[in-house]
Design goal:
7 helices; three-stranded antiparallel β-sheet; alpha/beta; elongated; 47% helix; three-stranded parallel β-sheet; 211 residues
Amino acid sequence: LSVQKNHHFDLVFFSSLDDGIHYLLNNKRDVCLLDLLLPDSQGIDTFQRLHDAVLQIPIVILSSINDENIALQAVREGAQDYLIKGTVDGRFLARTLYYAIERQKMQEEISALSLLDKLTGLYNRRGLLTLAEQQLRLAQRKKSGLYLFFADLDGLKAINDTFGHQEGDQALVCATEILKETFRKSDILARVGGDDFIVIVIDAALGSDVV
């Protein structure tokens, strides 16, 4: 769903999980309202598959499965809320969806502070490990490949010793720009040490031209 200026929701409906994921990967939406019982997916795995595919979109579950254990597991794994069909009205549902959007924004702001390298704006080691775990699960499910590239900036110590750390920082920023120009926006770029960089190229077929 997406929020319109008049504070109503613009709803796009899909009867299968695969169709919904395909749409969300190619279109911007503000929030997802998810049923756990779909023709191509049942139970908590429905949420897990959607959450792994569109981590940046808040998900509210509206299900006929009245199971406290499943509800707690879903919330622990990232669902913004778990509602039971027939127990909420339209007004309560709309408020829940608005709150989910705002919580997601706040969580992303907090997460960005701890997952990004301050100097380069790339992911730090923690951010890399977080996203790598997600992408590995996706690759396994889609049976697609991943490429892992290691790079380091030669001579950084000499630059720092000769010209000062400010110039060394500028060299790292320049190296970052080269990496951004070389790889796709969908790939994961990280600075994991002083002059060490790692790139994860996602959705890569073996033998494909990825750069």
